[in-house]
Design brief:
single chain, 222 residues, alpha/beta, 8-stranded parallel sheet, 9 helices, binds pyridoxal-5'-phosphate
Length: 222
């Protein structure tokens, strides 16, 4: 069996240099994150606010933390003082609250808007029309401390790789369209968070700039 160190090094070796590896460590103990840290990994993703704040307290302070799970507005205040990226922003209310809490912490938070690309009903996220509507309507003075850097999506849980590839292609297409129609500063809308343990290679082929990899690094979750 490969060690966490070996897996991290081989993933970094396989990923193009411009693609960020997010080590998704939800439910895993801090000791395992430290093992990844000692292999040079500095970017970690967590899904639950309480777990994220506990790990932030325990672990080295040069870690770049990404909140990748579904986030409730009333919990933003707990992570705003230290979180660098929030993926999966799926409402205007949440976006405005992130800005408000970032102002309080005197920080800028990088955010990704979640797009619903999977066939499953249960996944959170906007569709293309809702995204454009939000971006054209929202008051810029309420977004002084967030940077909307791109989109995040989750493909269907499916063995049908042609379907998964189509969903990634679709997300990339939406990203390009939104960038060209809703942003003056197009260079800043430059991120596409897609790809997990089972489908990251395909996601990278389709234009991902951030892969969120959990079980392939830390083992399966119970
Ligand atoms: C858990 C999770 C991942 C990582 O999934 P793996 O299949 O373990 O790599 C990626 N993205 C999100 C949003 C997750 O919740």
């Amino acid at each position: 069996m490969l060690t966490i160190r070996e897996i991290i090094l081989s993933l970094k070796n396989e990923l193009p240099p411009e693609v960020k590896l997010i080590a998704v460590s939800k439910t895993k103990p801090a000791a395992l994150l430290l093992e990844a840290y000692e292999a040079g990994q500095r970017v970690f993703g967590e899904n639950y606010v309480q777990e994220l704040t506990e790990k932030f307290d325990l672990l080295p302070k040069d870690i770049e933390w990404h909140m990748i799970g579904h986030l409730q507005s009333n919990k933003v205040k707990y992570i705003a003082p230290f979180v660098t990226w929030i993926h999966g922003v799926d409402s205007e209310k949440l976006l405005i609250e992130i800005n408000k809490q970032a102002v309080k912490s005197n920080r800028i938070i990088q955010v990704l808007l979640q797009v619903h690309i999977a066939s499953e009903e249960t996944k959170f996220g906007f569709d293309e029309i809702e995204l454009l509507d939000l971006l054209l309507r929202v008051d810029p003075s309420k977004l002084t401390h967030v940077r909307i850097r791109g989109l995040m999506g989750m493909a269907s849980f499916s063995d049908n790789s042609a379907q998964v590839r189509e969903e990634f292609k679709n997300l990339k297409l939406i990203h390009t369209k939104i960038k060209n129609s809703a942003f003056q500063e197009k260079a800043e809308f430059d991120q596409l968070s897609m790809g997990m343990s089972g489908d990251w290679k395909m996601a990278v082929e389709e234009g991902s700039t951030m892969v969120r990899i959990g079980s392939a690094i830390f083992g399966s979750r119970s």
